[in-house]
Every structure is written in C-alpha cells, then in structure tokens.
Write a structure and sequence with these properties.
Length: 153
C-alpha cells in the first residue's frame, strides 16, 4: 500500500457538483501510483476534523471533463466538512480500476457511486489499521520527498 500526503487545495469543484465532494492534493513529482480508482484510508492531521476516514480516491487527469494535470482527489465516505489547507495522508489500500473516459457525465456519476460502494466494502474487509510506503508532498508547489516505510500488512 502507498501513502500520498499533502495539503488539501482547491480543485475544479466537479466532484461537489456531481454529489461526491473531494479533497484534492497535488501529486508529488517523480514516482506515483498508476492512474485509476482506489479504496483508501484518509488521515486528516489537523483541525476540527482530525482523524481517520474511509474513502474512494482517484489519481489521474479527469479525462471525462477535459485534459488536466494529474492529481489526487479523494471522496471521504460519510464526511461533511471543509478540509482546504489541511494536511492529509491518503493510504491507497486497494486498486479498484483504471482511469477511463466516460461517454457522458451521467455515466461517470453512476460509476462513481459504484466505486464508492466497492471501496466501502473493500475497506470494511481490510480493517482500520493498514499502513504502507509513503509518498509525501514537500509543499503544494515543491518537490516530493519519497519515503519507503515497512508495510505492516
């Protein structure tokens, strides 16, 4: 399992419009996981929402809504709050599917619902205490420090 950490930044706000608001983190330069959708554990490190959450993460370029620089966006399941500017870590627990371009936004939204359901089931089966190697963004605009940690799996 890999972990990507960084500060939550403003995105395009498409997820919010689609009913799946996401926390966006700039991807570090260098090594990155394959583009696609992942079941994920999210750690919010500071602020009033500090804690560990379950979620569904997407790494890629958002091909259905245009051509954008690669980023990480994660939907926190059963979460309602503002994370802008907060530091989070996203543990990519399970690769669910590759990134793809959908024929319509409605098709994308339907798949997002399926992805979140699959993530919820997968994370429940894995249990809450999984950790792996870490990729941390040094800053929103800076280079990444890549750390390999022993996987506790």
């Amino acid at each position: 399992m890999q972990t990507i950490g960084g500060q939550v930044v403003h995105g395009l706000k498409n997820g919010r419009e689609f009913g799946f608001p996401t926390a966006n983190v700039d991807l570090p330069t260098g090594a990155r996981p394959p583009f696609g959708v992942y079941a994920a554990f999210i750690e919010v490190h500071d602020g009033p929402h500090a804690g560990r959450y379950q979620g569904c993460a997407s790494i890629g370029t958002k091909p259905t809504v245009g051509d954008h620089p690669p980023n990480l966006e994660v939907f926190l399941i059963d979460f309602n709050g503002d994370l802008y500017g907060r530091e989070i870590s996203v543990d990519l627990a399970h690769y669910q599917r590759p990134e793809k371009r959908f024929a319509s936004v409605d098709s994308l939204i339907a798949q997002m619902g399926d992805d979140v359901g699959q993530a919820r089931r997968t994370l429940a089966a894995l249990g809450p205490d999984r950790h792996g190697s870490s990729i941390e963004a040094g800053s929103v605009f800076g280079d990444a420090a890549i750390h390999n940690l022993a996987a506790a799996e």
